[in-house]
Structure formats: C-alpha cells, structure tokens
From TrEMBL:
It holds the Pfam family EF-hand_6. Keywords: Calcium. It comes from the Eukaryota. This is EF-hand domain-containing protein. It comes from Hibiscus sabdariffa (roselle). Gene3D superfamilies: EF-hand. InterPro entries: CML48/49/50 (IPR044590), EF-hand-dom_pair (IPR011992), EF_Hand_1_Ca_BS (IPR018247), EF_hand_dom (IPR002048). Residues 27-62, 93-128 form the EF-hand domain.
Amino acid sequence: MSGERYPPMGGYANPFAALIPSAFSPETDPNIVACFQMADQDGSGLIDDKELQRALSSYDQRFSLRTVRLLMYLFTNTNARKIGPKEFISVFYCLQNWRAIFERFDMDRSGKIDANELREALLSLGFAVSPVVLDLLVSKYDKTGGESKAIEYDNFIECCLTVKGLTEKFKEKDTMYTGNATFTYEAFMLMVLPFLIA
C-alpha cells in the first residue's frame, strides 16, 4: 500500500494519518496527469474524495462516493480521504484492470454480472467465496435491492474492493493460510469497519 503513515499507535497504523503530496514521474501518461490536474482544483497536489469522484465519473461511468472512499482507503491505508499522484495512478490502472475483468465475465453483455459470472470473476482474481457469501454479495451490491440478482460495474468495483480488502486483512492474521485466524475484538473491528463506513 502506498501513502505515508504516522507511527503505529497501540499496534495499529493511525487510520487518520496525513498524506504527503508526491509528483508524477516524467513517463506518466499525459492524460492521467491532465485528469489529476483538472481534479486538483486548489493545486495542493492532493485530491479529495469528491474531486476523485468527479475525475473518475468523467470517463462515462458514475462512481458512488462510498466506492471512491473505499478505493482511497485501500490505496492509502488511511481514512484521510485524499490521494496524491502516486495513488491516483494506482487507482486509474486498477480500475482499467477491473473494467476488463467485468467485460470479460459479463458473458451476455447485459452491463451486469450475475452470481455465476461474479463467482468466475472473483476466482480469476484469486478469491474463492462460498455460495452463501456469493449470494450475500449479489444481494448487497444489486442496485435493485436483489430483484435483478446482478450487479453493475460501479458496484462490482465496490464488491471486489471489499472482498480483496477483507481477504488481505484476514491473511495478515492467517499467516499459515489455514483458513482460520485468531484476533481480538478490537483487531476485528479495525479490520471490518473501514469497509462498512467508507
């Protein structure tokens, strides 16, 4: 994960740590630089959640503020709700990869992924979830409240971010990769809450 953090407090990184602005490298795609600069209204070298939402939504896709905040959390490991050029590049290319995965597994070209397509997409990303978890994911991220039993691209991103983030946090505690882990209540809350309140 990128971004600067304060020293750990009580064994955990400060989730409200400040980011230090970075710069684009000379070989960065000029379109990415221009997109970031348009979003960075105050010229601070950092963009906030609403600026990132506008920048990402300008590419013919609307992202909820919740999805944007989850992206920011996963690429900074803080709740600072700001990112710099380094994180922006990572977010940009990550979204391109997920768009390609979404399109590959949207077999019927409906613009939505059903449970079977989601299972295959998650497997391609290295995440094997049980049928019960899969049903919960589809119900949670289906914009129709479960009627269509399928999820659209922006919610697919949020779904993948949640599965990826929680899996990575769990693996930190399951160092032997047994599928079991022991952690305190506080560690559990610190692991799960950022994904619930993004």
